[in-house]
Design a protein that fits this description.
Bound molecules: zinc ion
Radius of gyration: 25 Å
Order of helices and strands: EHHHEEEEEEEEEHHEHEEEHEE
Distance between the termini: 33 Å
Mean pLDDT: 87
Number of helices: 7
């Protein structure tokens, strides 16, 4: 389990020089890699690439890290390509690129973090009142940001043996049911951010269309568009991180051992709420939520299993009949009514445990809402 400490840094010539050097090295790596693919039809190994390309402005291991991150985006493209044939490999050159220092280049002395940049170069020195990190990264997030990575040896164990069903969705990022109570991650804030993102995208694209493609104005606008969209993307990711962390710790406190996550990879066949045009986005969103929940739960010693979620949103937990709900409330002929997404989570759990429908009243769900700097739980 890793913990990251982030620190804003003022923009300086030294930071610019370092990230420019990394950008130059990254660009040389990209160019050489694809040139060799084109001319020789082969993929150069990372070790050969690291021997070939270096930088006299970076620590040797920092230079290696630049080459390695090209290869890791190459690997993630090969994985993504299986689901998304339009996925693009990393082919773009970068003017600036993140710089990483591995432990061999990191020292802590007299309240200062000293990051070595190799012989003949000034180290980067940052006032530091914390422990010595294992890895440090200098990146850009609307300004320079130093990310210090710590290795946390987590010996956390589950505090019980409860099984919880989890339904991932777009309206609510996740709804969990442990057989007694449902916990709902409120998706309102995320949804409004996404709507705003779509509107902004459409607006900026239409302005871009009116400019001459490739012109100076067009390029400047294009750059500004990327920047504005990236900013919202950051906010969305941040909210999702906070909500999933919160859910996992709530489940851990409640004695959950196993998270049963509804498998939504078949979503294309399920024409549920939402527009069909949004389904790819839906997949991306639920994929991200699932990934975050999985690694955070595992860090707390909990298990995560996937469960085919066919019919789980339609089956009545009380009488077992199947019908399509409409509206946010699930209402059955037998008189059962409950929060619609909580029904899905409940059924995913039942399906995993191999139980049939259970008659009985269900406690009303707990809603977890996130607004910046504030948590609200409501019953
Ligand atoms: Zn019923």
């Amino acid at each position: 389990m890793y913990k990251v400490r982030k620190l804003r840094l003022e923009r300086t010539q030294q930071l610019d020089d370092l990230t420019l050097a990394a950008g130059a090295l990254y660009s040389r790596t990209v160019t050489s890699f694809w040139r060799i693919v084109r001319h020789k039809g082969l993929w150069l190994k990372p070790s050969s690439m690291m021997r070939w390309h270096n930088s006299n402005k970076l620590h040797a291991h920092s230079a290696d890290a630049v080459v390695q991150s090209f290869y890791s985006s190459l690997r993630s493209w090969r994985v993504r390509r299986k689901d998304n044939p339009d996925a693009k490999p990393p082919f773009r050159r970068k003017r600036f690129y993140k710089v990483q220092w591995k432990s061999s280049a990191i020292r802590l002395r007299n309240g200062k973090l000293i990051l070595s940049n190799g012989k003949g170069n000034d180290p980067l020195i940052v006032p530091w009142r914390w422990d010595c990190p294992k890895l440090v990264e200098l990146g850009w997030n609307d300004g320079y940001e130093l990310r210090a990575v710590y290795d946390i040896h987590s010996n956390e164990q589950p505090q019980g043996d409860k099984v919880v069903g989890i339904d991932l969705g777009e309206i609510h990022p996740a709804v969990a049911h442990d057989g007694e109570k449902a916990i709902i991650l409120n998706g309102r804030l995320l949804r409004s951010k996404r709507q705003y993102q779509n509107k902004l995208k459409a607006k900026l694209s239409s302005i871009l269309d009116r400019k001459k493609k490739g012109s100076r104005r067009w390029r400047r606008l294009q750059w500004s568009k990327q920047r504005q969209l990236a900013k919202i993307n950051n906010q969305i990711r941040d909210i999702l991180h906070k909500q999933t962390t919160r859910l996992v710790s709530m489940l851990h406190e409640r004695g959950v051992q196993t998270l049963v996550v509804g498998d939504v990879r078949d979503i294309r066949q399920r024409v549920d709420y939402g527009h069909s045009a949004n389904q790819r986005i839906h997949q991306m969103v639920t994929g991200k939520t699932r990934w975050m929940l999985t690694y955070k739960a595992k860090a707390k010693g909990m298990d995560v299993v996937l469960q085919d979620e066919k019919y789980t949103s339609q089956t009545c937990p009380s009488c077992g009949t199947c019908h399509k709900p409409n509206g946010r409330q699930y209402v059955c002929k037998c008189g059962f009514r409950y929060h619609r997404d909580a029904v899905g989570a409940w059924n995913i759990r039942q399906k995993y445990l191999g139980y049939g429908p259970v008659v009985g009243a269900m406690a009303s769900p707990i809603g977890v809402r996130y607004w910046p700097h504030m948590w609200c739980s409501s019953h």
